[in-house]
Amino acid sequence: MGNEKDIQPVPTHDSVQAGETEDAVYDPKSSDDNFEIFKKTTDGVQFRLVGWPQATMIFLKTLFATGVLSIPTAMYGLGAVGGALSVVGWGFLNTCKRLCTLRFLRLTFIDFAIVQGDFRNRHAHCHSIADMAHVVGGPVLKEICGLLFIVAYVLCAGSGIIGLSAGLNALSDHAACTVWWAFLSAAVIIACASVRKFQNIGWLSWAGFVSVYVAVFIVVVGVTTTDRPAAAPQEGPYDLGYNVIAYPTFVVGMTATCTIFISSAGTSAFLPVIAEMRNPKDYNKAVYVSMAIVQASYLTFSLVVYKWCGKWVTNPSLGSAGDTLKKAAYGVGLIGLAVSGCLYLHVAAKYVFVRILRNSEHLQKNSLVHWGTWFSCTIGLGAIAFILAEAIPIFSFLIALTGSVCFAPIAIALPAYLWLYDHWEYRRGSIVKQAVWYTHWLLLAIGVFICVGGTYGVADQIKQAYDSGLIGGAFSCADNSNTHS
């Protein structure tokens, strides 16, 4: 499992020539079919069918639903200015390509999504972030990152189950116990995730993105037409809880930061998609288009909802405009919520699937072993996601916990070190290059801080929620979808 015995050596940081620029990112061997996980074949399963427009939509759908449903809640903790700066800042770190475009500098800068894509195309045998960790840190780091990757996307699949079950609960007027709706949601998500190729899921992503985007737009317009938030007291004076600048405690601030950070941190899910793209060099194009749309939408939608709802934003935020618009939004958005959970579960299952069958004839063969392994991965991980979703049933807490425990190491710390590994010559370069070099070490340290501090903050808030009765308990029939900030 995970044996790279047939892979040719790739250049290490010691062999990178000083002065190497971004134009030299793609090693000629990267496009050689022998270096790809999935081979082009005529007598087996052909995985490499994803074009860059489909990849763009997969990336959009992977990020959009989770962030836009949770960021308005985080705004209450940080205030409008702090929340907006956090959205822009994390989006910049996760996407930005260069600090400067002047030809004499040509410096790759803080660019987590692009760093991972460029590193993968330099080391084309890498299917996941765990494979990249193996290149820079050996088998121990590979297994640690692989575990974090699995936990991250299983938790994200759990958030998809919570979102979909909240929608079914709302549309049915709570006709059944929430646990049963969650079970049904898990079954739907597992079935969708069992679609074997990203190419086919790409078509689902188009419908899913439009579905969620329209649903969120309904809520954004709806909250601006009400006299007061639906979750607030409907008579008498009340505190809106809107602050331009907030002064949160460490626990509240870290939880809100982790929630916003994860909204654009799922870039490690992009890597398995590259392995199924017809032309991996189109990856950067897909990233820029998707992230531009996502960040603009995050900023505008979340600021409007927070401005009108303040601390009375619900979790998820689709319930913030009252029962009628809540049903309308969830009715329109059900497809998108299901596809979100489907993508997260598919990414996790595909990682395990490739780890098990890598370098086996069954990886691209329509055999009993192939199908049995695939369905075992989707059903097994989907069941775990369902259990975790019911254990931590408040949407924003589940999202924040995923950000601190899993995505801080694999979406900040590791990408920073990947850049250092492939640009080792910068440590002895010009002053500007050395500044960029040490900035990436700083980012690595930030990743560690977010992991430790964020986990402490989220765990403390979950404990407080249980103690105060905000969370009804694991596998409770209580509906937590209307819980406000």
UniProtKB/TrEMBL annotation:
Residue intervals passing through the bilayer: 75-93, 144-166, 178-196, 203-225, 245-274, 286-308, 328-347, 368-388, 394-420, 441-459
Keyword Membrane: yes
Residue intervals of the Amino acid transporter transmembrane domain: 51-458
GO cellular component: membrane
Example of a GO MF term: L-amino acid transmembrane transporter activity
Principal subcellular localisation of the protein: membrane
Name of the protein in its database record: Amino acid transporter transmembrane domain-containing protein
Cellular localization per UniProt: Membrane
Similarity section: Belongs to the amino acid/polyamine transporter 2 family.
Bilayer topology: Multi-pass membrane protein
Stored InterPro entries: AA_transpt_TM
Domain of life: Eukaryota
Region (Disordered): 1-28
